[in-house]
From TrEMBL:
Name of the protein in its database record: DUF4381 domain-containing protein
InterPro entries recorded: DUF4381 (IPR025489)
Keyword vocabulary terms for this entry: Membrane, Transmembrane, Transmembrane helix
Superkingdom of the organism of origin: Bacteria
Transmembrane segments: 26-46
């Protein structure tokens, strides 16, 4: 009689569970890469917040002043310019300063409009509102040729 070929087979043995630890080397590489990217992102976020801190303080200070304090608002703009760009840019003659201020704020400032700020009494609510707008729209990374 012929022998049944299936008689030589053994019972099915279920494999043992595959351990998930220790991880394969590629997973260590992925974890290290994601961790590095996370740390770099957090450092860049912190640096960006520190960079914008002076502008945030200037906006907060400008909100405490009234529109009649045009000179104080102008001083805040000069301080912002000195902080983010240079002292030379902030101390330009009035004609060049009005051009630079127009570039930095996006608003259009003229020589005649800023001239009353350098006189004894300069309570101009319209100019104060425009200067407050210039503080909030102040460009931090605009290239300016001094």
């Amino acid at each position: 009689m012929q022998k049944n070929p299936l008689d030589g087979l053994h019972d099915v043995i279920a494999p043992t569970e595959v351990a998930w630890w220790p991880l394969a080397p590629i997973w260590w590489l992925i974890i290290a890469l994601v961790g590095s990217l996370l740390i770099i992102g957090l450092v860049l976020l912190y640096k960006n917040q520190q960079f914008k801190k002076a502008k945030k303080q200037a906006i907060k200070l400008s909100k405490t002043l009234s529109d009649d304090d045009a000179q104080e608002l102008h001083i805040i703009l000069k301080r912002l310019t000195r902080h983010y760009y240079s002292s030379q840019l902030a101390s330009q003659p009035l004609a060049k300063w009005s051009e630079s201020l127009s570039k930095l704020s996006g608003d259009n400032f003229s020589y005649d409009e800023l001239m009353p700020l350098y006189q004894q009494q300069s309570n101009n609510a319209e100019l104060g509102a425009k200067l407050r707008s210039a503080i909030s729209n102040f460009k931090l990374k605009e290239p300016i040729n001094v």
